[in-house]
Design a protein that fits this description.
This protein has helices spanning 15-24, 39-49, 58-65, 79-88, 103-116, 130-140, 171-174, 178-181, 184-194, 289-302, 314-329, and strands at residues 4-9, 29-35, 54-55, 69-72, 92-95, 120-122, 147-157, 197-205, 216-223, 228-234, 236-248, 251-257, 266-270, 333-334. The strands form two sheets. It has an eight-stranded mixed β-sheet, covered by helices on one side. The protein starts with a strand and ends in a 23-residue tail after the last strand. It has 357 residues and is an alpha/beta fold.
Length: 357
């Protein structure tokens, strides 16, 4: 197994999670450089984590260091251009959510991946915990019957001061409110567990925060296998919780957590006593950046598409885009209906932008 050379782009709060993952996997990766436009903050970060070189320009870093993997931990509006530059320089990418802020950008990234034969992976660490993997296996094998009803609730709290950071709360720089920036993790897990979805209707509003984007959204989604799901995303909820519930023909399975989960956070209520054994989750892998990074490194070893690669997460970004369109139009929006002729293809708020070339 190769030990890969890694660069970190962005040294803000979430970069600490990336560095923790790298430290846990130090036998597989070596962090050789960081990029930060604020030199003082970058220097402090490098000192803290013993990173040998600091750059203020990503292109300069890519040319000088030629990393195998770049981990992007910058604000959302920068992800797309940074991911492209890294891929074109020959580096694999692990990028914070959202990977990009439009279907047009995502499809362009996928084309660049194909051209260069390497991949960009979106940080969706909730897919990689042992509890989620176990439940997905049970769903796919119909061990507990078909999933019938789903609940996906990200009810978090962010006060007004949180949005005083210049890039937050704006369509151009954050790409959306809790639908895009907070509930995206649990919604991705919801879609990953239940598979392709068919149609969605929704409402969204800005009820209490002085921001451009929504501070709450609610949606009802029908999956192609027939499951009906309810989705709530909020930053107005003082008792914070991430809650997922699936009612299958033979069991209810639910998860209560906040930013991560362990096996103990999953609960199974099984109708048939003999099926109780299925609630025993094998192994213990916490949903974390380290769990996803470990899986990505294995994909790099095999030179194969990662679990959360660009095309693999497209259904999640498409659902988010359709929620915004459904909320704005008051219509039910079907999967696959947002094509290149649709303004929502270029912007989740329907603000047409030039198509990436």
């Amino acid at each position: 197994m190769e030990r890969y050379r890694v660069a970190i782009v962005g040294t803000g709060g979430i970069a600490g999670s990336h560095m923790q993952a790298c430290q846990e996997l130090r036998d597989r990766v070596k962090v050789i450089a960081a990029v930060e436009i604020d030199r003082a903050r970058g220097a402090s970060f490098c000192d803290q984590y013993n990173i040998p070189r600091l750059y203020t320009d990503v292109t300069e870093m890519l040319e000088a260091e030629k990393p195998d993997l770049v981990q992007i931990a910058t604000p959302p509006a920068t992800h797309y251009s940074l991911a492209l530059r890294c891929l074109e320089a020959g580096a694999w990418v692990l990028c914070e959510k959202p990977l990009c802020t439009s279907l047009a950008e995502l499809d362009h990234i996928a084309r660049i991946e194909k051209q260069h034969g390497i991949y960009c992976s979106s940080v969706f660490q909730w897919r990689f915990g042992s509890g989620a993997k176990h439940l997905r296996h049970l769903i796919q094998t119909r061990t507990l019957g078909r999933p019938l009803v789903g609940i996906c609730q990200t009810t978090w709290y962010r006060d007004q001061a949180y949005f005083e950071v210049p890039w937050r709360g704006k369509w151009a720089t954050e790409g959306g409110g809790p639908t895009m920036g907070h509930g995206i993790h649990l919604m991705d897990l919801f879609v990953w567990l239940l598979g392709d979805w068919d149609e969605v209707c929704a409402m969204a509003d800005t009820l209490d925060r002085a921001i451009e984007v929504e501070d709450v959204s609610m949606a009802v989604v029908r999956f192609k296998q027939g499951t009906l799901g309810s989705i709530v995303n909020s930053v107005l909820s003082p008792r914070q919780e991430s809650y997922l519930r699936l009612d299958l023909q033979q069991a209810t399975v639910d998860l209560r957590a906040l930013y991560s989960y362990t096996n103990q956070d999953w609960r199974y209520h099984v109708i048939e006593p003999g099926s109780q054994e299925h609630s025993s989750i094998p192994g213990e892998v916490v949903a974390s950046h380290a769990a996803q990074l470990a899986a990505l490194l294995e994909s790099m070893d095999r030179k194969e598409q990662p679990v959360a690669s660009t095309l693999a997460v497209r259904p999640t970004l498409e659902l988010i885009t359709c929620i915004y369109k459904a909320a704005a139009s008051g219509q039910t929006i079907r999967s696959g209906s947002i094509a290149e002729s649709d303004p929502y293809y270029y912007h989740v708020a329907g603000k047409r932008e030039p198509q990436p070339q």
